[in-house]
Design a protein that fits this description.
The protein has 550 residues and is of the alpha/beta class. It is built from 19 helices and eight strands. It binds NADP nicotinamide-adenine-dinucleotide phosphate.
């Protein structure tokens, strides 16, 4: 039994305990993290250099030099790993969806590259010791060393900043500032580190050389933390789990049993909303419900059987929802499917179109009163591929043109965007938006043709994010307090894009949906009031469906 009676909202409220805040002292904690991270890194580097000088001397053979280079690559792993893991511990108090691996990986890669590039000239390009000019003029002036270190530091900082920004932009607003703040931060840090390395002379005792070198690292880390912290402390998460709340609100998510939908459901539950998982396979929905309850025992989550390719199933789900729940605040159209072969549903609709656009149109129409009463939000997941989509109103079901799964998918994505646009026009009391979640690694890629699948899991893999990250723009649109004025917009991840749907085409598609579902919106255009052009399209559409059925 998956469709259970609604638990009183107060029950959920009482059992809901807000996440404790861990953001106090963010700035000092960030500075401490950078300082200790660099202390570990430079301490390891100084220790390695001193040990090499004491036990092995200058490397003379190429093999020995390569060995030293490998040692310093390991130093990069230790430095980058220590710095990034300590930074992550502080950052996650503000960006709770940030995972250690995704933050540490790029930082370590840049740190290793930095040490390898930095050590290569002195190991392989410097003149051999016996050919070096003698006398004090061989040592460059300290000022020149510091300037060069600052320039190299600024370049390294831009690399660090860019690598971390690539991850950060998915979690926080204004992340672009991360790149630029790292240039002055690392310029100062590297100058301090080089100061610590350049001050001691060869006649200093080993412990003093080591202490000054480590002191330079500490000063470098401190400067790094102070400067980058100016931006870090201003980072605002795309979804503010500390301050936003969906308590007392009811949210429905279609296709919530896997991929982005599952994470959207979890994200909405985390914010305190009552969440309805609309799934065609209720057992899978129940599995997700138990998963959410295991991590958030106070969550109010229920499963509603709903097959978006079956108009009867959608009607039953909507009727149950209206019967059992007094309100509906958020409806997320997430369910999506692609079909390698042309498939026609029992209702005579091309299956991709049925799941992606016709089903959502019917469900929204049926839930209209509930949504409008709550001044609700209808969020529809759409790919940027809608821009390549061609909607043939006269042949929506590929009855007269060759079927191609990509063309069917692009058409369906575009229809979703047309649906959103027309919904925003028809229902000014609702907030309707389409959102492209980015390239998200889910079960969807497993259904790609073999070559495309290989590409996704190898070369293109860094461009894909986890479903949890892909859900962020959707949860943001569902929960952000001041989003209502953005109705009718297309969002490329968390940013509104410039896309504008063709209003005439949107009206024609809506009219087509009304004919296919037999359900009228009740205001604006209806099947009986089609404009001249729409009537012709409707005729052709009905003809197309009849052809498809035959
Ligand atoms: N992943 C991306 O990179 C990406 C990019 C742009 C847009 N999107 C859009 O984001 C949405 C979710 O994508 P995803 O990657 O998470 O896809 P996914 O992993 O394939 O999940 C799709 C979900 O839709 C459900 N579904 C399929 N047919 C259904 C039906 N007839 N009735 C009810 N539910 C049905 C599936 O349930 P079953 O498990 O029962 O099949 C599944 O839970 C899709 O609409 C997709 O177009 C994704």
């Amino acid at each position: 039994m998956t469709w259970a009676p609604r638990r009183p909202a107060a029950d959920a409220l009482i059992r809901w305990s807000p996440r404790p805040t861990a953001q106090r002292f963010f700035y000092p904690r960030w500075i401490a993290a950078c300082t200790v991270g660099e202390l570990v890194g430079i301490g390891t580097a100084t220790g390695t250099t001193l040990a090499l000088n004491a036990w092995a001397g200058e490397p003379t053979t190429t093999f020995a030099r390569l060995g030293v280079l490998a040692l310093f690559a390991a130093v990069g792993i230790i430095e980058g790993g220590a710095l990034a893991s300590l930074q992550w511990r502080v950052l996650r108090t503000r960006l709770p969806r940030l995972r250690a691996g995704e933050w540490i990986g790029p930082t370590v890669a840049i740190a290793v590259a930095g040490w390898v590039v930095g050590m290569t000239p002195s190991l392989f390009l410097a003149p051999a010791p016996d050919s070096a000019p003698s006398g004090p003029s061989a040592e460059p002036a300290l000022a020149l060393v510091l300037v060069l270190a600052a320039v190299a530091g600024a370049a390294a900082g831009v690399c660090f900043g860019a690598a971390q920004w690539f991850v950060l932009r998915r979690h926080a607003e204004r992340a672009y500032m991360w790149i630029w703040i790292h240039a002055p931060a690392w310029a100062l840090a590297l100058a301090a580190i080089f100061l610590g390395a350049a001050v001691p002379t060869a006649d200093w005792p080993l412990w003093a050389i080591g202490a000054v070198g480590v002191g330079g690292g500490v000063l470098g880390g401190l400067l790094l933390g102070v400067v980058t912290g100016l931006v870090a402390r201003c980072l605002t998460p795309w979804v503010d789990e500390e301050h936003w709340s969906l308590r007392g609100k009811v949210c429905a998510v279609t296709g919530a049993n896997s991929g982005i939908g599952q994470e959207v459901a979890l994200g909405l539950a985390r914010l305190g909303g009552s969440v309805l998982l609309l799934c065609r396979r209720p057992a899978e929905g129940e599995r997700v419900r138990q998963t959410i309850l295991s991590s958030h025992p106070a969550a109010d989550v229920w499963v509603v059987p709903c097959d978006m390719a079956d108009l009867g199933s959608i009607r039953r789900a909507a009727a149950g929802l209206v019967r059992e729940w007094p309100r509906l605040d958020v409806l997320v159209h997430n369910a999506g499917a692609t079909f390698p072969q042309r498939t026609i549903t029992a209702d005579g609709v091309e299956a991709t179109l049925a799941v992606d656009a016709v089903g959502p149109c019917l469900l929204t129409t049926l839930l209209r009163d509930r949504l409008e009463a709550a001044r609700g939000r209808v969020i529809t997941l759409t790919g940027i591929y809608h821009r390549r989509g061609h909607v043939d109103i006269a042949d929506l079901h590929f009855a007269h043109r060759p079927y191609d799964w990509l063309a069917a998918n692009n058409q369906a994505q575009k229809c979703r965007w047309l649906f959103t646009s027309e919904l925003a026009r028809r229902a000014p009391h609702l907030m309707a938006a389409s959102v492209h979640p980015g390239a998200v690694l889910t079960g969807a890629q497993r259904r790609l043709p073999p070559l495309a699948r290989l590409l996704v899991y190898t070369l293109a893999r860094p461009g894909f994010v986890r479903a949890e990250v892909g859900a962020i723009p959707v949860v943001r649109l569902a929960a952000r307090p001041d989003v209502a004025p953005l109705t009718g917009r297309f969002f490329d991840r968390c940013q509104p894009a410039a896309d504008v749907a063709d209003p005439a085409l949107a009206r024609m598609f809506w009219a087509a949906c009304e004919i296919l579902t037999g359900q009228s919106w009740g205001s604006g255009l209806s099947t009986g009031q089609l404009a001249q052009d729409d009537e012709g399209a409707a005729d052709r559409l009905v003809h197309g469906r009849a052809h498809a059925e035959s």
